[in-house]
Design goal:
309 residues; mainly alpha; 14 helices; 70% helix; 0% strand; disordered N terminus
């Protein structure tokens, strides 16, 4: 039988800019990898709700300005946690640039090992949103199951490739992928892969293709502005069920990180017991690392966390 404790305020000084920059590096690196979500990293290090609130406020400011409500626009900008957003954004952009040049090569050279590590990272972080589900009743469990099945099906879709995307397709892909990038368990990079624009986007970043990049960023801004308002509403009004859904999304997305798959993402058995043992060992090390990161995050200033024992 479980008992619920009231929400407990974490006190302490805000994280230093260097720490927040490092968190941005982790988020950006995760977002570059198909199957891994930067939102998961934000949830693990304890900045998720603050980030969503700041994104919503920043996205609302231009809308107020267009309507002629300049005082309202200034209020919205004042609601943004700039001490969080600025170093975090710099870290994310830095990771995008570096990751676009490095991570695809690592995935190509060491696919099984890299996927095993990613699998362990996500599996080890499942406890983070689950601890924030205040009521673990049948409704929450159904929410977990439905979200897990939806994510499992989504990440099993075969990839599209070989066709150069048009700029309208790039805009739409950016709007869709950015929504996934702030959802734990749903990989924006993976959706780009499904939509057939993952490799072209990395190539455009590396080649500094400004028209492509500008179109992609415009789609991201539009999608982020619309989706962040919905997500903040869900976190404020239906926090427990939203967290339960995030648990399901993260669990279902593990399918994308199974180290042995065919070209159409069909799951394959391990080729040998030795290969399975290596993958399991790497996954366990990664899970232990994310557990240590979570515990370290609990010792710095964080937003209120509803805990459940």
């Amino acid at each position: 039988m479980t008992t619920t404790r009231p929400a407990r305020r974490r006190t302490g000084r805000p994280a230093a800019a260097g720490t927040t920059f490092a968190q941005g590096l982790l988020m950006g690196t995760a977002d570059v990898i198909p199957g891994v979500s930067g939102g998961t990293v934000a949830l693990i290090v304890g900045i998720y709700e603050r980030l969503v609130t700041s994104i919503r406020a920043a996205a609302s400011a231009p809308v107020s300005a267009v309507r002629g409500d300049l005082p309202g626009a200034r209020r919205r900008l004042g609601e943004v946690d700039w001490a969080l957003v600025v170093p975090l954004g710099v870290g994310i952009v830095t990771a995008f640039v570096i990751g676009a040049a490095v991570i695809p090569g690592l995935l190509e050279a060491y696919p099984v090992q890299m996927l095993a590590v990613f699998f362990g990272l996500i599996a080890g972080s499942l406890a983070v949103p689950w601890r924030r589900v205040e009521r673990r009743d049948a409704t929450a469990l159904v929410c977990v199951a439905v979200a897990a099945v939806a994510a499992f099906v989504l990440v099993g879709l075969p990839p599209r490739s070989g066709v150069a995307p048009s700029l309208p397709q790039v805009f739409t892909a950016g709007a869709v992928a950015i929504c996934a990038m702030i959802l734990p368990g749903v990989s924006g990079a993976f959706l780009l892969l499904v939509l057939g624009v993952y490799e072209p986007t990395l190539a455009a970043l590396s080649a500094r293709d400004l028209p492509y990049v500008a179109t992609f960023v415009a789609g991201c801004v539009l999608g982020l502005g619309a989706f962040s308002r919905l997500l903040e509403h869900l976190l404020a009004r239906h926090h427990s069920l939203t967290m339960a859904a995030l648990v399901g999304l993260m669990a279902g997305s593990l399918r994308a990180l199974w180290p042995w798959q065919d070209a159409d993402r069909g799951l394959l058995p391990p080729p040998s017991l030795g290969a399975l043992a290596v993958a399991v060992a790497l996954a366990l090390v990664a899970a232990a690392a994310v557990t240590a990161l979570t515990r370290a995050g609990a010792r710095v200033g964080r937003e209120d966390l509803p805990l459940h024992d």
